Fold this protein.
Amino acid sequence: MDNFILFAGTANPTLANAIAQELHVPLAASIAEHFPDGEVAVELLESVRQKSVFILQSTSPPVNDHLVELLAFADACRRAAASRITAIVPYFGYARADKRHGRCEPITASMVADLLQAVGVNHVVTLDLHTPQIEGFFRIPVDSLTAVPSLHQTLRHHLPPDVVVVSPDTGRVQMATQYAQRLDSSVVVLHKQRKSSSETEVTRIVGDVRDRPCLIVDDMISTGGTINRSIEALLNAGARPEITIAATHGLFVKDARAKLTHPSVQAVFVTDTVLPKETDWQQLQVVSVAPLIAAVIRRFQTNGSIGDLF
Ligand code: R5P
């Protein structure tokens, strides 16, 4: 356990410190700042020669800055002869750009995978990837963990017994099923259609929500539009106005908080993969994934399996 070093980019110092504390190691010293023209400047202040290096960085907003910082850290480690570079990316930005919708579009998630490999990353650890097939963009190992067990541990105490788990679109059915199995509940699926990059509508509900409290689950909340439309659709379909929301990544961009501040919403659970900026929001509960990530680092350093952590 002693021949590794943990660097953190600037995306989420709170999570980085919590992981370091769990592991009883200090965070390695480094500088990450911007030149006056906006370029990212990174410097390692500790030797990484022949060491296993972990770089912690969510590529959360500002996505491009955090991504370039992560790439710069990895490049610096490779050039300074680190023996192994593991990028721990709790929130993997650009994951929604995993396919082409038109002939003239990029697959940006694939481009990010190429960039990480080009700078020498040997292994990627992330949580609740938007789609599991993103792993296929990499030729290196990718461990996509899930925060479902961590979130379930906390939210199960807050849910009414007859709760039904709602997947806000077909892409989240597997996640909703994981929650439903743990809660001994059933799954309802909403059919969501995207009108624009920030506007969606629910066209159909598969399952019965009449007089049932609902738990809406998702991988991420960005603008809050998906959840907002889901709440409206569920209430229109006769759901009890007792709604709980659980998402792994709480980005809360633009007026997301206002969109989720609805009289029927009792609580919003997210993890700390993204640094929470809403500190005075009574309904918001943040569950830390620091113990999970620390456990992964520990297992990697002792060549242990992480199978039971999924
Ligand atoms: C979409 O497929 C994702 O799983 C999320 O539902 C979506 O990205 C959330 O974004 P927003 O909060 O802006 O609707």
User: Anything to note?
Assistant: The chain has a mean pLDDT of 95. Residues 96, 130, 168-169, 171-172, 198, 218-226 surround ribose-5-phosphate (CB under 6 Å).
